[in-house]
Design brief:
By secondary structure, this protein is of the alpha/beta class. The protein is 33% helix and 21% strand. Belongs to the universal ribosomal protein uL1 family.
């Protein structure tokens, strides 16, 4: 068995026995152990009591985090004419129609968010098997199929986070950077948890949130007390 590095051992020792702590304590612990040479992302993982195989138990939504994510978001827009010009003016990184579809089909996906005007959906629909598994498929429910291209691009660039319950009912997202002020991270965490709580589907029965864990990109995770994380 490979030996653990000093940093890994120290992190594990610091996290040992820390279970269901407050958001503030979790943030302090994670920040103190985020010692990578890059600015680590602070990530949240929420286990939900839903079965995503059933349509009435799907959890999906979007939240504009109050302090942003700290991540530079690359945005692709399917649009033509005036709407393409609007997307460019708003700061979209990639704009196209059939040409963009062909690029994606060729295996190049150089963006983090995909937006489309409604008239582009017959083209975008052909990319369902490519964009769907990556949670990049434009969807009117989260505002990425819209005629208001300017607002959608600006929201994506401004720190808007989409979330979707994956297999096993887990919702995962980046909610900031280790360099963020602790209070701002805590605010982002509670805003995200609140958004997931409000997205509770009609088919969910029993306990909805069963576990909340926080971690940094390179560090171990710590579980957070659910009622504390859900407190406004």
């Amino acid at each position: 068995m490979a030996k653990l590095g000093k940093r890994t051992r120290a992190a594990r020792e610091a996290f040992a026995g820390k279970v269901n702590v407050s958001v503030e304590d979790a943030v302090a612990l994670i920040k103190s152990n985020a010692n990578a040479k890059f600015d680590e992302t602070i990530e949240i993982a929420m286990n939900l009591g839903v079965d995503t195989r059933h349509a009435d138990q799907m959890v999906r939504g979007v939240i504009g985090l109050p302090n942003g994510t700290g991540k530079s978001m690359r945005v692709a827009v399917f649009a033509r004419g005036a709407k393409a010009d609007e997307a460019k003016a708003a700061g979209a990184d990639i704009i196209g129609a059939e040409d963009l579809m062909e690029t994606i089909q060729g295996g190049t996906i150089d963006f983090d968010r995909c937006i489309a005007t409604p008239d582009m959906m017959p083209i975008v629909g052909r990319l369902g098997k490519v964009l769907g598994p990556r949670n990049l498929m434009p969807n009117p429910k989260v505002g990425t199929v819209t005629m208001d291209v300017k607002a959608a691009v600006e929201a994506a660039k401004g720190g808007e986070v989409q979330f979707k319950a994956e297999k096993g009912g887990v919702v995962h997202a980046g909610i900031g950077k280790a360099s963020f002020d602790a209070a701002k991270l805590a605010e982002n965490i509670r805003a995200f948890v609140s958004a997931v709580a409000k997205a509770r589907p009609s088919g969910a029965k029993g306990a909805y949130m069963t576990k909340i864990a926080l971690s940094s990109t390179m560090g171990p995770s710590v579980t957070v007390e659910i009622d504390n994380a859900a407190a406004e």
